[in-house]
Amino acid sequence: xxxxxPHDSYVRSVLKDPVRTAELLRLAARKNxxxxxxxxxxxxxxxxxxxxxxxxxxxxxxxxxxxxVKIDSNEPKQAxxxxxxxEEHKSYPExxxxxxxxxxxxxxxxxxxxxxxxxxxxxxxxxxxxxxxxTTMFPNYPEYYHKIGLPFILEVVxxxxxxxxxxxxxxxxxxxxxxxxxxxxxxxxxxxxxxxxAIAGLKSLPREEAEDLLSKTxxxxxxxxxxEAKEQFKMDFKKCSEVYGYKSIAEVxxxxxxxxxxxxxxxxxxxxxxxxxxxxxxxxxxxxxTDSWSV
Length: 295
Description:
Layout: H1 7-15, H2 18-28, H3 33-39, E1 42-49, E2 65-71, H4 76-79, E3 82-90, H5 97-112, E4 118-124, E5 153-158, H6 176-183, H7 188-200, H8 207-221, H9 227-244, H10 249-270, H11 276-282, H12 287-290
Parallel strand pairs: 3-4, 4-5
Antiparallel strand pairs: 1-2, 2-3
């Protein structure tokens, strides 16, 4: 089932905003002592995404995010110190998670950020409980080498334990809808039940931000919505659109299709199979969208 949902692109699109990631960390820290201890040392108002940290999608992937945050201190020199955060999402237990994180840490925090202390946070929304086993640098080596620990602090945040259902109306609307979608993506009944209170909270956000969250969430979950379920979700979406002035579900689907066509046209252009004029004429790509395409 995990491969049927675009978990990675959804998590990245929602949490690349430092404000949303900060909200997520504060919420998760309520039931995670280690995470709470970490947050007590930093100033989340200084959280910044490391731009282009995972641009090499062959090596890394679309789901990964990286941030820096400053130490929270009254001592001026210490308050200028940075900590790195690697945010990795998993929707199923991944045996190779440690080597992945070590590679990310080296490429970003050592080579690019000049070796700053790092906390790796694994956001997990799989169906089954997952406890990462040996957290050593070389888990496949004999026991003697397991004394070599990880070069970063590892924290696992299971979406299932971040919040209780009755808390949904009280969670920050910046993150509530995404958390409900991630927590219940494998449970159609609960998803339909708890999406409504999460969507209702969007009215307190600026229209553009609320519309963006709603659209991204629909694209993420739409494979659930077939037949009657899809019609019901469309009605819920339509009501929100009418009340709050958001895009219609048809507009969201149309934009998604347009983005796919643009991606196909760009790939064919890069491969030399079509010209810029072909893309405009046959794929209906707006001319301004092709201006940045390099020959």
